[in-house]
Design a protein that fits this description.
Number of domains: 2
Helix content: 25-40%
Shape: globular
Radius of gyration: 23 Å
Largest sheet: 9 strands, mixed
Structural class: alpha/beta
Strand content: 15-25%
Number of strands: 18
CATH topology of the largest domain: Rossmann fold
């Protein structure tokens, strides 16, 4: 029997994306379909979706499946569409989502002051769909992603619709982002008074969306086994470690996959030249394209790349301190990212100090990120914590050797090129411990030394490209999680 799942999230590739969450949400329907799981995705109706959803190719209007006269104080509709051939529902609430700016904040980067209402409305709609409040819809599982969707589980617990409520799963993609708001918003959430409690939505005197979802969920998933263990401790739990520890029997760590239909160097249209592990020499043409795009000197030395948010979590401050060393070792850097103004300035200043050796593009460009994976020699991921990480998985698939901190999903997905692993032919990258300039500096030296031995380096590339980080295995684990909840 087919399991039906409502996947609730704030973004989904290819419709709208700010980070890896969108890639995961966009890939899940196809990943689970082969396991007899039918996924319907629910996302907000941002302006970016207008051309692809509100009007079809022949000009027809999107199908309205439900109308809200009052959804947490605003008028709204649910519209039906498709995402990569799978069912899609869009919460069309112009008062909440039709705005100029980002998904979560204005053009200046400041959070929208009513984010609590925006994403509570998403959760309310998710719970309505998953508990019989909307005719024609019923689901076995409601799967909510991160704090923006976590209230789905809370509404299913405290204020479900008239039908049989679906079992709920909340996936933590990054526990650092929790959706914490003032207690004053509780009165407008449409929850019973008893929900404002220690084991409910109350969190340090206010309202915590992620916390509420984790308390209410029938199961909790994280995006790697190591991260599932890390967040039980104060260093990584960000204040929720006690809750995670008490619900440890409900926590599962399932590594994210990548979509081979999108990330495959043999078919990637964003690459000047496509290639496989058997014809790695063709990557040189892509490397020349990276040099041109980032204004780097042409040469045979290694090009390191960074494709990342420029934040403390990502260890970008430590990398900035190592750039002079990277250049002194004969390396070059091509960086694509944006984030903290001070870090952006630090990388731009390094590019000015080392013209032709460091190239920086502030912003994000999806095709360019593919070129970097297909043309750079190594990708740097020096994160202080990393729930799963996707860029290192893309690096493996493209023969762009990952150099990563030993944390979270990075520790779970990269095999360090130590002597034993190299001797056994299983190494896929370089790991390092403490995220400090000294530790990262040693990793850079190791990378350059390995690169200077072409047969060893190509062995790392080919071994990484052999690794299977498609959704095949991860999809099976999610399907097993769902079936276990249904059987229970």
């Amino acid at each position: 029997m087919t399991t039906t799942v409502l996947s609730v999230a704030s973004e989904a590739y290819p419709l709208v994306k700010t980070g890896g969450l969108a890639d995961v949400v966009g890939a899940l329907p196809a990943a689970l379909a082969i396991h007899d799981v039918a996924v319907t995705t629910l996302i907000p109706g941002y302006p970016a979706l207008a051309d692809t959803l509100w009007q079809g190719r022949s000009g027809e209007q999107a199908r309205v499946v439900h109308v809200y006269d009052d959804l947490l104080g605003v008028e709204a509709r649910l519209l039906a569409g498709e995402i990569a051939g799978h069912p899609l529902l869009v919460l069309d609430a112009p008062d909440l989502f039709a705005r100029v700016g980002g998904l979560y904040g204005d053009r200046g980067g400041k959070d929208w002051p009513d984010n609590w209402r925006r994403f509570a409305a998403l959760g309310r709609a998710g719970a309505d769909l998953a508990s019989g409040a909307i005719p024609g819809y019923a689901f076995d599982i409601a799967h909510a992603h991160d704090w923006q969707a976590a209230m789905t589980a809370a509404y299913l617990r405290y204020a479900p619709g008239p039908g049989v409520a679906a079992k709920s799963v909340v996936t933590i993609h990054n526990i650092a982002f929790q959706g914490r708001f003032d207690a004053s918003v509780f009165a407008d959430l449409g929850l019973p008074a008893g929900a404002f409690a220690l084991d409910g939505v109350e969190y340090y005197g206010g309202v915590g969306f992620l916390k509420a979802g984790l308390e209410a969920a029938d199961a909790i998933a994280t995006v790697s086994p190591t991260y599932a263990q890390e967040i039980r401790h104060g260093e990584y739990g960000m204040g929720l470690e006690g809750l995670i520890a008490t619900r440890a029997d409900r926590v599962r760590g399932i590594v994210n996959g990548i979509d081979p239909a999108v990330w495959d160097p043999a078919t990637d249209a964003a690459l000047p030249v496509r290639y496989t592990a058997r014809i790695l020499a063709k990557r040189r043409i892509n490397k020349r394209a990276v040099e041109t795009r980032f204004g780097l000197d042409t040469g045979d030395g290694p090009i390191f790349t960074v494709i990342s948010r420029l934040t403390w979590q990502k260890g970008m401050d430590v990398l900035a301190d190592c750039l002079d060393l990277l250049v002194a070792l004969g390396g070059r850097l091509a960086l694509l990212g944006s984030g903290d103004a001070e870090l952006e300035a630090a990388f731009l200043a390094a590019a000015d100090r080392h013209p032709g050796r460091i190239g920086v593009i502030i912003g994000y460009d999806e095709p360019l990120s593919h070129l970097l994976q297909g043309g750079a020699d190594a990708i740097l991921v020096p994160s202080r914590f990393e729930p799963c990480g996707l860029t290192q998985l893309y690096g493996l698939a493209y023969g762009c050797v990952p150099v990563v901190a030993r944390t979270g999903g990075l520790a779970d997905t990269i095999i360090d090129a130590n002597a034993a692993a190299l001797g056994a032919g299983v190494a896929t990258g370089i790991q390092f411990g403490d995220v400090t300039p000294d530790s990262l500096g040693l990793a850079l030296r190791r990378a350059v030394d390995l690169y200077d031995s072409p047969s060893v380096w190509s062995g790392l590339q080919r071994q990484g490209m052999k690794a299977d980080f498609s959704w095949r295995r991860s999809g099976r684990l999610y399907a097993d999680l769902y079936s276990g909840l249904i059987e229970a």
